[in-house]
Amino acid sequence: MGGGGGRTEAIMREIASLRAQRDELDRRIRFFESQLRVGVGAVTAASPTTTTLPSSLSAKPDAMGSHAAAGDGGGATPDMIGRYRRHLLLPEFGVQGQRKLSRSSVLVVGAGGLGSPVAMHLAACGVGCLGIVDSDDVELGNIHRQVIHIEAYIGHPKVKSAAAACRAINSSVKVMEYRLKLKPKVALDIVRQYDIVIDATNCVTSRYMLSDCCVLLNKPLISGSAFGLEGQLTVYNHNGSPCYRCLFPNPSVSTGYQSCSDNGVLGVVPGVIGCLQALELIKVATGVGEPLCGRMLLFDALSSRFKTVRRRSSSCMVCGENPSFTQHVFMMFDYDNFTKSSESSSKPTPRLNLLPENARVSCREYKRVLDAGKPHLLLDVRLAHHFQIASIPRSLNIPLPDLEKKLPLLQQALNKAPAEASRGGERKQFPLPLYVVSRGGSDSQVAVAVLRENGFLYASDIAGGLEAWAAEADPNFLVYW
Ligand SMILES: [Zn+2]
C-alpha cells in the first residue's frame, strides 16, 4: 500500500503540475487576446515574463496601455470603468485615485502569509507594476496561510505561483518576478525601480535591510508582521515617519519577532495584516486618507482588538539628524550577523553545547536501547501542544518550564517503570536510565543540567533532539516543524 500510494501520489502531482502549466498557457493566451482587443501596440513589452535579475528592466508601468490611455486630463477609459467602477464611484477616490494607482509601481518582498493577500489585492485593485520577490518554493504546510498558492504549484517557485495568480486576477497589471533572496548588493538596484516597498518577509533581518534601503532611496516602506495570534503594521519613512531602526536600534529588543516554523501562526492573522498592508499601499500611492505614519497598529486576534501606538525617535543612525549610514555602508552591512538570526526563518536555531560528553547519547544509541527493550524512561520536555502533535511512544511529557516543580512526578514515574520492566524478565536496575529529548536538542540539554543538579545523575540528553531522531533514526516520525 505504502509503495503504491507513493507512486499514485507522484502521478497525481505530475498531473497537477501539467494542469498548472496548461493553465499558465491559457492565461497567457487570454492575456494576448485581451491586448489585441484593446488594440495596444506594445504587446511584447507588456507581456508577462519571468525575470531573475532584471536590474536593467524598468518597473515603471509604462507598458500598461489601458491605463496610460486614460490620458492626463481625460476621464476614465472603458477598461478602467469595466474593471474598477466601484472604485470610481467612491467620492474620495474616483478617477484620480484610480489613475494614481495605475501609475504606481510596488515591490512586494515575500510571497508568503503576508505577501499573499498583499499581492492579490494589489493586482485586483490595479497598481501599474507589481514586483514580487521570494526565493522559496511552495510547500503544502504553508498554504494554510499563503493563500495565493495552490496545490498544483507545490515544489515550484513561489514567485512563479504568485505571479501567475496575479496575472490571472488582472492581466493589465505588469508583474515582475524576482526569484532571489534580497541582499544589500542587489537590493538598491531593484528597490530603486519602484515607488513603494512592502515588507512581507516576516523576518527581522530583512526588516532592517529593507528599512535601511528605503531610507537611502527615499521610498515609503509598508511593514507588517504576524506571529501566532498577533500582528503589527506600520508605514516607515513616509511623511516624516520614523524608520525601523528608530524603533528598534538594537535587534535584541525585537526578540518578539520569531519564526512561524517554531511558534505556529493562525492562517488568517497574516491574512488580516496583509490586507491592511494593501490598504496602506493604496493610501500612500493615491494620497487618499491617512496612512499609518508614525503609528504602529497592533492586532490581537483572540480578542479581535486593534490598537495603535505612536512611536517616535530622535537620534537614528539611518534617518536621524546626523545619519552615518551611507549607501556604501549599506552594501557592506552584515545583516545576518547584526540580527544574529539565520537568513531563512525555517532554519533551526544554532545548537547549544552545555553538557559533557558522558551526559549525551546519539539518537542511534537511543534507538538501540529502545529496540532492545532495555528498561528506561524517556522524558520529552517540549511544550504540551507540541507533544500532542507527535511524540516517541511511551515517553513522558513534562515541559521544560514546569520541570523543577514537577520533579516528584518524574521520580514517581521512575519508581514505577522498573516494575513494568521486571515483568518482561529483566532484573531491576537502579537507578533507571533516564533519557531526555526536546525538538532540536537544546531544551533537553538544559533539562539534563537541571536534573543532574537535582540528583538525577543518570539523566542523558538525546543529542540533536527529535529533529535528529526523525532524520537519522525514525523516518516515519511525523515531522511537524
Ligand atoms: Zn530612523
UniProtKB/TrEMBL annotation:
Residue ranges occupied by any Rhodanese domain in the UniProt entry: 372-478
Cofactor: Zn(2+)
SUPFAM superfamilies hit by this protein: Activating enzymes of the ubiquitin-like proteins (SSF69572), Rhodanese/Cell cycle control phosphatase (SSF52821)
Keyword Nucleotidyltransferase set for record: yes
Stored InterPro entries: MOCS3/Uba4, Rhodanese-like_dom, Rhodanese-like_dom_sf, ThiF/MoeB/HesA, ThiF_NAD_FAD-bd, Ubiquitin-activating_enz
Broad class of the protein's primary localization: cytoplasm
Domain of life: Eukaryota
Pathway membership: tRNA modification; 5-methoxycarbonylmethyl-2-thiouridine-tRNA biosynthesis; Cofactor biosynthesis; molybdopterin biosynthesis
Presence of keyword Hydrolase: no
Binding site for Zn(2+): C243, C246, C316, C319
Coiled-coil region(s): 8-35
Cofactor binding: number and manner: Binds 1 zinc ion per subunit.
Cellular component terms (Gene Ontology): cytosol
Catalytic activity reported: [molybdopterin-synthase sulfur-carrier protein]-C-terminal Gly-Gly-AMP + S-sulfanyl-L-cysteinyl-[cysteine desulfurase] + AH2 = [molybdopterin-synthase sulfur-carrier protein]-C-terminal-Gly-aminoethanethioate + L-cysteinyl-[cysteine desulfurase] + A + AMP + 2 H(+); [molybdopterin-synthase sulfur-carrier protein]-C-terminal Gly-Gly + ATP + H(+) = [molybdopterin-synthase sulfur-carrier protein]-C-terminal Gly-Gly-AMP + diphosphate
EC number(s) stated in the UniProt entry for this protein: 2.7.7.80, 2.8.1.11
Pfam family, one: ThiF
Region: Disordered, residue numbers: 47-75
SMART domains linked to this entry: RHOD (SM00450)
Amino-acid positions noted as binding ATP in the UniProt annotation, renumbered to this chain: G113, D134, K158, N202, C203
Name of the top EC class for this enzyme: transferase
Family: In the N-terminal section; belongs to the HesA/MoeB/ThiF family. UBA4 subfamily.
PANTHER family per UniProt: RHODANESE DOMAIN-CONTAINING PROTEIN (PTHR10953:SF249), UBIQUITIN-ACTIVATING ENZYME E1 (PTHR10953)
Name under which the protein is recorded: Adenylyltransferase and sulfurtransferase MOCS3
Gene: MOCS3
